[in-house]
């Protein structure tokens, strides 16, 4: 009886699966049309001359845009900036925001099922992964023939060519406007240095000595505190010490062979990184929990006075100073110029400032692409950028004598006491800047204006920006080149096993379980597992691009 | 509950020792389960300056409710709270009805094809086509951006349903037989006999399913497009997690000057906000776990 | 006539062709009741199941699931031939087996202990608070664990006070499983005991009375009345958990592991996650998940068979 039961079960299941297969076959596996239902007004063939009303779109049109929402800056429906856009262009922007913490999950599903809204925020790596599938509208021809403002920007930033794939452009990059440059940097308690008559360290070795002296004076301290784990910290310091570590190990080194991609951990120079950290660990200067400390613990250490130094997002120093001064008015965290490494060289990398990887792709199935392209082009113009970053002229900003937009003080001061900060509140109220839908986007430009107007700016900030601005050690980062689908697959395969092997080794050298001389064997193993092949793929891809 | 008095007649020293150990162990359990939640609560109402230094241990310092204020000031929160209540109520109702309708036939040994159907159902616990095909099905049924995409796909949690079935199997057959002899059909037996006797398991299932809905965010994330339909967990999760990964690069970071409230305050406030409704509901369900519910009904 | 548990009187087993029809007729109301749930399973579980064929194809978004090209076992080869993959399988199984061994009985024991409390007020109190950790989000729980086990955290302070050396728990592969499982027990013992408490409340009080009159002490009562009373629940839970031996979520592990503990902490899901779920990797991910499902089904089938043989209870 049981046997027949099981047989029957299997039979029924086969039937069920067949039915489901047939059901899947009967209708197309993917839906035609946007996930968001009907969107556009009846499509009109638009000619290239401006519409008689002077607006971008002859008829009112709704465009659905999807991008992540950061909790610090809630996105309003049809905020003043979008109202202004509608007035000027007849285009009504309808936002579909997704919490930034899970943006990638949703994006992945929508892309995988070909269910994009009209415009969707993607990252550069999505171009590699999805570009050839045909779900994004190819844009290169429009750029060459129809666009004006964007074309100008495109041509002025040659490195942008890297966001193309096989010569095709699949998304419009978000370009930063007037963005202040900074990067990971060394930040130290300059007040304690003064108090105990210690010189600001000029080399990395001097840094360790200074921290060791501080440890003597404060025996319960953890002078150098870290967060986010071993790999992320190697990433932050490697370039400064003469090697490098990009997102997954591959980085661009200007000083090697006139500039090429290198897989950091498979080079001799990488030993300097590990032995430096090992020295810090042995001297008792580096937090023994450096590999597991959370961001929260790291911040606790710095704001409670337990730690004096960090090498991370240097802007945080200003935060911690403000916090510390609640109980210790003298306390000051400040960035110092990049110290010289063991070879006497000073080098560091800025964050990507002009282009940070965000792009907006257009659904290949969109109706009347010409109008949309014209609209996007307008977003790159000064008028479009002013509205999407400063709001409504005359109400929230004015144009000063240099032609630059300036926030109006009365408006901004309404948000003086807002949490978490006045500028986020302003952005949220108006629907502006980088965290909203803006293509030539401001971040630090608007932030500094608002901070100065509401009185949160301080001399410390001026000092910080001066130090960073004058430090010649920083160089611009170089983007990864676009890879073909096969190359991307191969890279992923190599990296998965290569990094798994390497990540198990780093701590052994930092803690000192293994002597640094044994790292040569690790390098050999890495090469065996494909490290050089990785470099080859990247450098070839770069060469291909430059033809 | 007069029965328990009889059990106390034979009290030995062995029993007394066991009792002491039992109490001690359970008190220890209470401490390790309550203290962390207590800690989360006091941190959430403490001034951010102390919180960021890790200065809070057993008492709150610089009491401020600003974290809660800020979370609730977010105009989207109230709407999303309402959404969650609706999804939870509707969803749990569907869960209970469908799970019972599924579990009862499977609990009857004379249900022809029982093994086959059980296998078909259990099979789905392990085999699934994945997120993409399910999304396509929901899309095809035109349920995207509606409440049905949230409550229909998880309508029966097979794990829960099987537990329910196990309970149904424990109900004495004699009851069902006598009802059958009285002329009742299966539907009436289910409604008039089985369900009233299943209060403990029904209470448990209501709790499990309701909590599942209360905590769920992933389906809403995937299937809903309008912010006005989001349940509260999507917003709350964003607060907790976005703070972890933010500012790895680019901007100078959020320069705070105030520190009355820091990220940790929000994170912990969010947990308290999530737990409080459960704490309020649980006692009502708990009384159904009392002993002798079934037998009491039999005698009555 | 022998009354079989769960069956109705008057059903003689006859081997005739009308047997089939008669059986269907007898169960007709049951079929009616079962109809809607069955529809649910077909629509939301079996209809999407055709998607598993992604594992045998190179998924192309525009071509869709059915239009994508077949590649046979290409994706399976990729991970089955990788020796590191079997390490991941080993880690997954070990964490789950140890986990099952320690954390399966814990809620049961708790339920039994609560059951033995003479003071009902205290019992209700403990019940009402023991499940609280279940509601602390994983991110926060892991933050607490890291804090607890830090070099200057509470555990190490106790060790120092006892005159022992500090241990960097989170950097040592041999401690990972213990940390993972112990924190899991803490988080879930209260919540997990609810099911068993509900089961206990269904045991006939008269059985206890009779046993007391017969002179059985509490221990004997537990062995002969309580445990058998919840045996069906325990068996079913055990079978279903055994089926999940090959599955483990990545979220908590990612928050607790690091390069130094990959040796024991790296599991299938974390490796797939690191490899990059973003991008066109649906085929690969589906293949891995299909592998896990098949293993799970085999385990489920086997444990069900054993349970049926040993105790006459089983899933089917």
In short:
With 300 residues, chain B is mainly alpha-helical. Helices cover 69% and strands 0% of the residues of chain B.
Structure description:
The complex is a heterotrimer of chains A (547), B (300) and C (316). Helix content of chain A is 42%, strand content 14%. By secondary structure, chain A is an alpha/beta fold. In chain A, helix 2 runs antiparallel to helix 14. Chain B has two domains: 1-69, no CATH class; 74-247 and 281-300, Orthogonal Bundle (MetI-like fold). Chain B is mostly helical. Chain C is mainly alpha-helical. Chain C has 16 helices and no strands. Chain C is flat and about 75 Å long. The interface between B and C is large, with 109 and 96 residues.
Give the integer mean of the pLDDT values of chain B.
Answer: 84
- Separation of the first and last Cα atoms of chain B: 15 Å
What gap, in angstroms, lies between the N and C termini of chain A?
A: 73 Å
Q: Please indicate the percent range of residues of chain B in DSSP E strands (runs of 2 or more).
A: under 5%
Which runs of chain B of at least 5 residues are low in confidence (pLDDT < 50)? 1-6, 245-253, 292-300
Shape summary of chain B:
flat
Strand order of the biggest β-sheet of chain A? 2-1-3-13-6-16
User: What is the number of strand segments of chain A?
Assistant: 17
Q: State the share of residues found in helices of chain A, binned by percent.
A: 40-55%
H-E string of chain B? HHHHHHHHHHHHHHHH
Per the principal axes of the C-alpha atoms, what is the gross shape of chain A?
Answer: globular
Q: How many whole angstroms does the radius of gyration of chain A measure?
A: 27 Å
Secondary structure elements and pairings:
The complex is a heterotrimer of chains A (547), B (300) and C (316).
Chain A lengths: L1 H25 L34 E9 L10 H10 L1 E9 L3 H10 L6 E5 H7 L9 H6 L3 H8 L7 E2 L2 E2 L2 E5 L7 E6 H6 L8 H14 L12 H8 L12 E4 L6 E4 L6 H13 L12 H9 L5 E5 L2 H9 L8 E3 L12 E2 L5 E8 L6 H11 L2 H9 L6 E3 L5 E3 L1 H4 L9 H9 L9 E2 L2 H11 L4 H12 L3 E2 L9 H19 L2 H6 L7 H10 L2 H16 L1
Helix pairs in contact in A: 2-14
Chain B lengths: L2 H5 L5 H32 L3 H5 L13 H8 L1 H33 L6 H10 L7 H10 L7 H4 L6 H12 L3 H9 L4 H12 L1 H17 L2 H6 L8 H14 L17 H24 L6 H7 L1
Chain C lengths: L16 H10 L1 H19 L17 H4 L6 H7 L2 H21 L1 H11 L4 H11 L7 H11 L5 H8 L11 H28 L4 H9 L4 H26 L7 H6 L5 H4 L2 H9 L5 H30 L5
């Amino acid at each position: 009886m049981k046997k027949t039961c099981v047989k029957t079960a299997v039979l029924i299941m086969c039937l069920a699966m067949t039915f489901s297969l047939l059901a899947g076959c009967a209708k197309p596996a993917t839906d035609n049309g946007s996930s968001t239902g009907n969107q556009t007004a009846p499509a009109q063939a638009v000619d290239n001359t401006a519409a008689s009303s002077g607006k971008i779109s002859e008829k009112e049109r709704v465009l659905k845009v999807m991008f992540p929402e950061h909790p610090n800056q809630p996105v309003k429906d049809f905020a003043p900036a979008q109202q202004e856009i509608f007035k000027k262009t007849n285009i009504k922007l309808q936002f579909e925001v997704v919490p930034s913490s899970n943006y990638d999950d949703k994006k992945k599903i929508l892309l995988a099922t070909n269910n994009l809204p009209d415009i969707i925020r993607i990252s550069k790596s999505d171009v590699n992964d999805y570009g050839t599938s045909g779900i994004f509208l190819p844009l290169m021809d429009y750029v060459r023939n129809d666009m004006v403002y964007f074309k100008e920007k495109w041509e002025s930033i040659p490195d942008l060519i890297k966001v193309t794939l096989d010569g095709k452009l699949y998304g419009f990059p978000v370009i930063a406007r007037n963005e202040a440059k900074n990067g990971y940097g060394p930040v130290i308690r300059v007040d304690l240095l003064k108090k105990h008559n210690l010189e600001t360290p000029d080399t990395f070795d001097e840094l360790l000595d200074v921290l060791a002296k501080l440890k003597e004076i404060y025996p319960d301290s953890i002078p150098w505190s870290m967060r986010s784990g071993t790999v992320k910290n190697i990433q932050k310091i490697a370039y400064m010490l003469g090697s490098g570590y990009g997102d997954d190990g591959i980085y661009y080194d200007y000083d090697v062979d006139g500039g090429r991609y290198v897989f950091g951990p498979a080079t001799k120079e990488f030993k300097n990184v590990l032995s430096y950290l090992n020295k810090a660990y042995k001297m008792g200067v580096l937090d023994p929990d450096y590999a597991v400390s959370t961001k929260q613990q790291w911040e606790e250490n710095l704001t409670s006075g337990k730690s004096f130094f960090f090498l991370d997002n240097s802007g945080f120093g200003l935060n911690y100073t403000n916090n510390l001064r609640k109980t210790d008015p003298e306390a000051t965290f400040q960035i110092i110029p990049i110290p010289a490494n063991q070879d006497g060289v000073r080098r560091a990398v800025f964050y990507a400032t002009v282009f940070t990887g965000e792009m907006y792709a257009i659904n290949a199935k969109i109706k009347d692409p010409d109008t949309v392209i014209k609209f996007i082009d307008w977003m790159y113009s000064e008028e479009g950028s002013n509205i999407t970053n400063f709001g409504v002229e005359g109400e929230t900003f004015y144009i000063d004598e240099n032609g630059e937009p300036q926030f109006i003080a009365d408006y901004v001061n309404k948000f003086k006491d807002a949490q978490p900060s006045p500028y986020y509140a302003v952005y949220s109220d108006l629907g502006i800047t980088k965290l909203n839908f803006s293509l030539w986007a401001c971040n630090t430009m608007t932030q500094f204006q608002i901070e100065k107007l509401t009185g949160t700016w301080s001399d410390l900030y001026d000092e910080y920006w001066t130090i960073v601005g004058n430090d010649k050690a920083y160089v611009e980062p170089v983007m990864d080149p676009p890879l073909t689908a096969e190359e991307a697959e191969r890279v992923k395969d190599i990296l998965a096993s290569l990094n798994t092997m390497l990540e198990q080794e780093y701590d052994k050298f930092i803690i000192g379980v293994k002597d640094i001389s044994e790292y040569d064997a690790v390098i050999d193993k890495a090469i065996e597992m494909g490290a050089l092949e990785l470099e080859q793929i990247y450098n070839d891809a770069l060469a291909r691009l430059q033809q | 509950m007069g029965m328990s008095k009889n059990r106390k007649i034979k009290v030995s020293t062995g029993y007394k020792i066991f009792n002491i150990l039992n109490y001690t162990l359970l008190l220890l359990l209470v401490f390790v389960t309550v203290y962390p939640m207590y800690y989360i609560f006091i941190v959430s109402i403490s001034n951010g300056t102390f919180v960021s230094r890790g200065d809070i241990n057993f008492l709150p310092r610089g009491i401020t409710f600003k974290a809660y204020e800020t979370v609730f000031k977010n105009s989207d929160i109230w709407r999303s709270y309402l959404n969650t209540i609706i999804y939870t109520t509707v969803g749990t109702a569907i869960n209970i009805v469908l799970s019972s309708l599924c579990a009862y036939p499977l609990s009857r040994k004379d249900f022809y094809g029982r093994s086959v159907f059980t296998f078909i159902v259990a099979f789905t616990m392990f085999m699934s086509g994945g997120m993409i095909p399910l999304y396509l099905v929901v899309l095809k049924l035109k349920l995207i951006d509606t409440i049905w995409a949230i409550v229909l796909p998880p309508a029966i949690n097979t794990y829960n349903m099987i537990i329910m079935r196990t309970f149904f199997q424990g109900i004495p057959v004699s009851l069902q037989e006598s009802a059958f002899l009285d002329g009742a059909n299966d539907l009436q037996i289910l409604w008039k006999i089985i369900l009233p006797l299943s209060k403990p398991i029904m209470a448990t299932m209501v709790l499990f399913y309701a909590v599942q809905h209360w905590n769920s965010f992933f389906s809403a994330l995937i299937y809903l497009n309008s912010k006005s339909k989001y349940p509260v967990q999507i917003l709350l999760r964003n607060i907790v997690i976005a703070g972890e990964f933010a500012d790895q690069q680019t901007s100078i970071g959020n320069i705070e000057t105030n520190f009355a409230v820091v990220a940790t305050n929000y994170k912990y406030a969010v947990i308290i906000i999530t737990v409080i409704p459960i704490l309020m509901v649980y006692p009502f369900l708990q009384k159904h776990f009392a002993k002798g519910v079934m037998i009491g009904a039999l005698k009555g | 006539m022998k009354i079989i548990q769960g069956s109705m009187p008057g059903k003689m087993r006859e081997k005739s062709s009308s047997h089939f029809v008669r059986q269907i007729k007898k169960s007709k109301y049951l079929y009616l009741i079962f109809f809607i749930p069955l529809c649910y399973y077909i629509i939301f579980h079996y209809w999407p199941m055709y998607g598993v064929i992604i594992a045998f194809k190179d998924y192309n978004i525009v071509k869709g699931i059915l239009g994508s090209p077949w590649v046979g076992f290409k994706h399976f080869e990729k991970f089955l031939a990788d020796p590191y993959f079997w390490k991941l399988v080993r880690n997954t199984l070990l964490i789950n087996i140890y986990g099952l061994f320690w954390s399966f009985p814990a809620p049961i024991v708790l339920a039994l202990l609560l059951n033995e409390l003479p003071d009902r007020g205290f019992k209700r109190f403990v019940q009402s608070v023991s499940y609280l950790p279940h509601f602390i989000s994983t991110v926060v729980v892991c933050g607490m664990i890291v804090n607890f086990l830090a070099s200057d955290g509470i555990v190490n302070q106790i060790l120092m006070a006892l005159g022992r050396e500090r241990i960097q728990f989170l950097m040592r592969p041999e401690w990972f499983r213990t940390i993972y499982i112990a924190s899991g027990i803490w988080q879930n013992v209260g919540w997990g005991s609810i099911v068993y408490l509900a089961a206990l409340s269904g045991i006939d009080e008269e059985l206890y009375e009779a046993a007391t009159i017969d002179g059985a002490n509490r221990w004997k009562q537990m062995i002969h009345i309580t445990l058998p009373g919840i045996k069906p629940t325990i068996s079913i839970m055990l079978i279903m958990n055994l089926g999940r031996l090959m599955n483990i979520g990545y979220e908590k592990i990612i928050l607790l592991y690091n390069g130094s503990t990959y040796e024991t902490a790296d599991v299938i899901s974390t490796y797939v996650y690191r490899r990059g779920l973003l991008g066109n990797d649906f085929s690969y991910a589906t293949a891995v998940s299909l592998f896990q499902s098949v293993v799970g089904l085999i385990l489920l089938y086997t444990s069900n068979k054993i349970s049926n043989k040993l105790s006459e209870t089983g899933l089917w």
